[in-house]
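Students often ask what a 'structure token' actually looks like in practice. Rather than answer in the abstract, let us consider Antigenic thaumatin domain protein, a protein of 168 residues. Its sequence is given first.
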Amino acid sequence: MLFSKVFSLAATLATASALPFAPAERSTGGTVSIVNNVGQDVYLWSVSAASAPMEVLPVGATYRESWQTNPNGGGISIKLGCSEDGASVLQFEYTKAGELLFWDMSSIDLNPDSPLITAGFKVTIDDETCDTVTCAPGDVNCSESYQFPDDHNTRACLASASWTLTLG
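Now compare that with the structural description of the same chain:
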């Protein structure tokens, strides 16, 4: 009896291993993950037509957000700062339009002495055809992040991709 169970299991495994291998399809993604490696808590607000409650991102923690849409048709801004008052913020801004996600980083409202500038930040995307952003530690005028409202740093990528913003 035990022999027949073992033989049956072995036959099943042999059949399964003979089946053609189909690589896993890419995840539908559609998220941004924000990783805090700054060395202190980071405060964040995900803002659309109305401001959302502040969230605290502890050192070493990750915040995840699936793409949202703004009821007024505008974009979403995830504001990140090192103080609860929101006076000095780095912004990950995005607008989902069909299958595309238009996005940028904005340092317009970020003070030059912010720990976020001291630590630096980068955005990577799991779709290698998409542009990424890297702002080196201490780079107060990073050309890959908006410094002025009329900069031209908006990028686009398939919304099915997954973004990772690493602070520090």
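One point worth highlighting: The helical segments are 2-18, 115-119. Ask yourself how you might have guessed this from the sequence alone, and why that guess would often be unreliable.
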